[in-house]
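Example complex used in Figure S2.
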Amino acid sequence: WRIQQQEGVKQLARNFKFKNFIEALAFTNTVANLAEEEGHHPKLVLEWGSVEVVWWTHKIKGLHKNDFVMAAKTDKLYEG
Amino acid sequence: WRIQQQEGVKQLARNFKFKNFIEALAFTNTVANLAEEEGHHPKLVLEWGSVEVVWWTHKIKGLHKNDFVMAAKTDKLYEG
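Predicted assembly (160 residues):
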């Protein structure tokens, strides 16, 4: 994960690689379902063979402990 | 749709609005399934309440007639 600044807002971002579009789409859905369960929603950038996941907390316009927890959970989903 | 230039590559982009995350996710899947059927894959940026769809042709690093066809098909999917 890298910390990036987007229009003054700190965010946690990581790019995940896949071998085709369908696998990237499946991961998008897996992370989206986690997000909905937790009531905390990332930005998900789906392209052929990759998904970028970006976590931050809108309310504080930056990073909260929960974003790091969600990043760790995202890694677990990727590892399977 | 707007035409944007991303690292020298012309692209067609449009932002679609939704009333929550789940509806945005459903639209992401609908467009992704169309993409897989047609063998032409966009960039899809899913956030709470919105999906940005970006079409371009990797092989020519720019816009082909097919991208405009896919944009029109995306609109039809949005209109339902």
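Residues 16-47 of chain B form one domain. Chain B has a mean pLDDT of 97.
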